[in-house]
Design goal:
With 481 residues, this protein is of the alpha+beta class. It folds into three domains: 169 residues, no CATH class; 84 residues, Helix Hairpins (Orthogonal Bundle), CATH 1.10.287; 150 residues, Histidine kinase-like ATPase, C-terminal domain (Heat Shock Protein 90, 2-Layer Sandwich), CATH 3.30.565.10. Helix content is 54%, strand content 14%. It contains twelve helices and eleven strands. A five-stranded mixed sheet has the order 6-8-9-11-10. Strands 2-1-4-3 form a four-stranded antiparallel sheet, covered by helices on one side. β1 and β2 form a beta hairpin. α5 packs parallel to α6. The longest helix has 58 residues. The radius of gyration is 53 Å and the shape is rod-shaped. One of its GO terms (cellular component) is plasma membrane. Its main location: membrane. One of its GO terms (molecular function) is phosphorelay sensor kinase activity. This is histidine kinase.
C-alpha cells in the first residue's frame, strides 16, 4: 500500500525534529554534566589546598604534630575550616566518629545520609601522615591506596596529606539542582517533540494540499480536459509549478484546438476537389457532358489541384516533424534567388507586373543552406506575389547584408493586408480572401512551409506592410563568416 505524500512529509518532518531534539538533549546533558564535574573537581582542589594551608599553619604554630595526634576534635575542626561554604559545626556522623579509636580516620561509621550519596565527602577520603609517613590520622590497610601531597614548612617536608580514591562530593543542593535540571530538560524535549509533531502535521497538510491539487489536475489533463487550471497561491517552487502546469495546459488546449481545426480544414480542402471530380464524372456518366478533350482537361486540372494539395500537406507534415531532407552546403543565396526569379518571370509578365531586384551587398554572400529548400522558400513567396498582386503592379526585392545576417525583403503593391490578417498569414489553411479561386490562392499551406524551412536554417521570416501598398515578406538568414 502506497503512502500519501502528506504522510511522507509528516514522517520526514517529525523524524528530523526528533533527531534534532534528541541531539540537543544529549549535548546539553553532556555539557551540563561536564561543566558540573569540572566545578566539583576545582572545588575539591581548592579544599585540598585550603586543608594543606591550614595544616601548615597549625604545624607552624605548634612546631610538631604531637598536639594534634589523638585530638580528633581538633582534626575535625581543621577539616571543617577547609570548606568556606559550610558552617563550622560537625555533621552527625562526625560526632559518632569520636567514639572510635583516636587516630583512626576515615571513621567506619554508617550513616543513612552518607549511604544515599553517590560520592564520598572529602572528610571521608583524607588521611594525615607524619614526615616519616607514620599515621597520625588514618587506616593502615588503606595506605597503599593513598595519593600523597607534601605539607611543607620552612622549605622542608613536615608531613603528608593522603587522599583516597573516589569521586568528589557534591552538596545536597547541587545534587537537587542537577536532578531538577535533568527533569526540566526531559520535559522540554517532550514538549518540543509534541510541538514538532503538530508543526509537522500542519506543514504536511499545507505542502501536500497543492501537490494533491496538481495530481488531480494532471489526471483530468490525461483524459483530455485541457481547460483545467490550477490556482497560483505563492511565489515559491510550488507556485512556479502551478504556473508551468497552467501554461502546459493552455498549450495543450491550443494544440488540441489547432488539431481539430487542422482535421476540419483538411477535410474541407479534400472534399471540395473530390466533389467537383465526382460531379463532372457523374455528368459524363449521365451523358449530360460529352466526353471530349475539354472534359478530360477539366478532370486533369481537378486531379492536379488535388495532387498539389496532398503534396503540400505531405511537405508541411514533414517540415513540422523536422523530417524534411536538408542537404546543406555553403552556397550563394542571391544566385538561387536570381534563378528562381528568372524561372517565374513569365507569370509576372502575364499579369504585367514589373519586378526589380536591388542587391546592396558588396561581394559574394555565403550561407550554409540547402539550395533546393531555399529555392522552395523563394518560389513560394514569389508565387504568392504573382498570384495576389493586382495586374500592372510592382514587386520590389531588396537584398542587404548587415554584420552576420542577410536581409531579403520582397515587397509588392496593392492589395494590402490588414495588421490582424498579417499575424495569421503563416497559419496553415489561412487565406486572406476565402472567395479567391484555388487556382490562384492555393490551400493556404505555402507560407506555413516557408516558416518551417526558415526555422530549419536558423533564420527569421515575418510579414510586414509594404511601402508600395501591398505586402512585404521579410527574411533573415545567418551568413557564413
Amino acid at each position: 500500500m502506497h503512502k500519501s505524500i502528506r504522510i511522507k512529509l509528516f514522517l520526514t518532518f517529525l523524524l528530523t525534529t526528533l533527531l534534532v531534539v534528541a541531539g540537543m538533549y544529549l549535548f546539553m546533558r553532556w555539557s551540563l554534566d561536564r561543566g558540573f564535574n569540572e566545578l566539583i573537581e576545582t572545588r575539591q582542589r581548592e579544599r585540598v589546598s585550603n586543608l594543606i594551608d591550614g595544616l601548615t599553619d597549625y604545624y607552624a604554630d605548634t612546631g610538631s604534630w604531637e598536639p594534634l595526634a589523638g585530638n580528633k576534635q581538633q582534626w575535625i575542626q581543621l577539616l571543617l575550616q577547609s570548606d568556606n561554604r559550610r558552617h563550622r559545626h560537625p555533621a552527625p556522623w562526625m560526632k559518632k566518629a569520636l567514639t572510635e579509636p583516636l587516630n583512626r580516620w576515615p571513621p567506619d561509621v554508617e550513616s543513612e545520609a552518607l549511604s544515599k550519596r553517590r560520592f564520598k565527602p572529602l572528610e571521608m577520603r583524607v588521611m594525615l601522615l607524619a614526615a616519616d609517613k607514620s599515621i597520625i590520622f588514618g587506616q593502615p590497610e588503606a595506605l597503599s591506596q593513598l595519593t600523597l601531597q607534601a605539607i611543607r614548612h620552612e622549605e622542608r617536608v613536615v608531613g603528608f596529606l593522603g587522599l583516597l580514591p573516589g569521586k568528589p562530593d557534591n552538596q545536597l543542593g547541587e545534587l537537587r539542582f542537577m536532578e531538577r535540571q535533568a527533569k526540566e530538560f526531559a520535559w522540554i524535549a517532550l514538549l518540543m517533540i509534541t510541538l514538532s509533531a503538530v508543526l509537522a502535521l500542519f506543514l504536511a497538510y499545507i505542502l501536500g494540499r497543492p501537490i494533491k491539487r496538481i495530481t488531480a489536475a494532471a489526471k483530468e489533463l490525461a483524459v483530455g480536459r485541457y481547460d483545467v487550471r490550477l490556482p497560483v497561491e505563492s511565489g515559491d517552487e510550488l507556485g512556479q509549478l502551478a504556473r508551468d502546469f497552467n501554461e502546459m495546459a493552455a498549450a495543450l488546449e491550443q494544440s488540441e484546438q489547432a488539431r481539430r481545426r487542422w482535421v476540419a480544414d483538411i477535410s474541407h480542402e479534400l472534399r471540395t476537389p473530390l466533389s467537383v471530380l465526382r460531379g463532372e464524372l457523374e455528368a459524363l456518366q449521365d451523358g449530360i457532358r460529352p466526353m471530349n478533350r475539354a472534359a478530360i482537361d477539366s478532370l486533369f486540372g481537378d486531379v492536379m489541384r488535388l495532387n498539389r494539395l496532398t503534396e503540400d500537406l505531405y511537405q508541411l507534415a514533414l517540415s513540422d516533424q523536422g523530417a524534411l531532407t536538408y542537404r546543406k552546403a555553403v552556397i550563394d543565396p542571391i544566385a538561387v534567388l536570381t534563378a528562381d526569379l528568372a524561372a517565374l518571370m513569365p507569370e509576372f509578365d502575364s499579369k504585367q507586373l514589373s519586378v526589380q531586384l536591388i542587391d546592396t551587398t558588396q561581394g559574394t554572400v555565403r550561407v550554409y543552406a540547402d539550395p533546393d529548400r531555399l529555392s522552395q522558400l523563394f518560389r513560394n513567396v514569389l508565387k504568392n506575389s504573382a498570384n495576389y498582386t493586382d495586374s500592372g503592379g510592382r514587386l520590389e526585392i531588396t537584398v542587404a547584408k548587415k554584420a552576420d545576417t542577410l536581409f531579403i525583403d520582397m515587397a509588392d503593391s496593392a492589395p494590402g493586408v490588414s495588421d490582424e490578417e498579417r499575424e495569421k498569414l503563416f497559419d496553415r489553411f489561412y487565406r486572406v480572401e476565402h472567395s479567391r479561386s484555388r487556382n490562384h490562392g492555393g490551400a493556404g499551406l505555402g507560407l506555413a512551409i516557408c516558416r518551417n524551412i526558415v526555422a530549419a536554417h536558423n533564420g527569421i521570416i515575418k510579414a510586414q506592410a509594404s511601402s508600395l501598398g501591398g505586402l512585404a515578406i521579410h527574411i533573415e538568414l545567418p551568413v557564413q563568416s
